[in-house]
Amino acid sequence: MGDRPYGLNPETVERIADEIIAVFEMGVQVSLVIGGGNIFRGVSAAAAGIERTSADYMGMLATVINALALQSVVERKGAPTRVLSAIPLATVCEPYIRRRAIRHMEKGRVVILAAGTGNPFFSTDTAAALRAVEMDCEVLLKGTQVDGVYSADPKKVADAQRFDGLTYQEVLSRNLKVMDASAIVLARENDVPILVFCIQSPGAFADVITGTGTYTEINGGG
Q1: Mode of pairing for the β-strands spanning 194-198 and 216-219
Q2: β-bridge mates for residue 186, sequence order
Q3: For 87-117, how does the pLDDT look when each residue is reduced to its tens digit (9 = 90+)?
């Protein structure tokens, strides 16, 4: 959204595309699970009276809009991309097929995964954990508004504690809201480390990939 109340801010899309290009040019295989809250939030719509399942499907379609926008800008900047949707939309993108997504990455394409899991009642956080597990990704990165995981929202609580590292169990037991519990459990059961960083900081994505950035690592400990 950038500084807009909703929708797509072209400058923000350009900046995020630059972050992706920087990592792509390092030779890193990248797949992205994209949200849609800047256009439509299923939970909020359900609270406003739209039936929850329908609201969630509307939210999934919003992620496809974001994915197509990001694809256009990333390709203009020089990286081949493919959008794969968990909801079949053959006119505008490919259906999500695990082997196809992996093959695109092997061929040096940025893969943008849209429409969450394709099922209502699951967030894009859970979709990201699911895709990371089934595509055998080495790490799951969560780009957020702050530079890691805090004990409370640092924008609202001045003395919120920042963590450099946490275990999956600590995130769950402390009820830290960095990701949905189902996403944390899925990552824990399959030993996929999660790195939480600030997508708003220029160069942060590449810095995290090289291990030099500021982020919180969530893993099994030990």
Answers
A1: antiparallel
A2: none
A3: 999 999 999 999 999 999 999 999 999 999 9
Query: In this structure, what CATH number is given to the domain that contains residue 216?
Result: 3.40.1160.10
Q: What is the pLDDT of residue 3?
A: 83
Helical spans, DSSP H, in the chain: 10-24, 42-47, 52-76, 98-106, 124-134, 168-173, 181-189, 204-210
Same domain, 96 and 172: no
Which of 84, 109, 137 is the endpoint of a domain?
137
Ramachandran bin of 211, using left for φ above 0, alpha for ψ from -120 to 50, beta for the remaining angles = left
Q: pTM (2 decimals)?
A: 0.93
CB atoms within 10 A of CB 155: 10
Point out the domain boundary residue: 137, 168, 203. 137
| pLDDT score of 43 more than 90 | no
Pairing outcome for strands 165-167 and 216-219: parallel
Q: Where in the sequence is the domain holding 142, given as residue range(s)?
A: 138-222
Name the residue with higher pLDDT: 73 or 46: 73
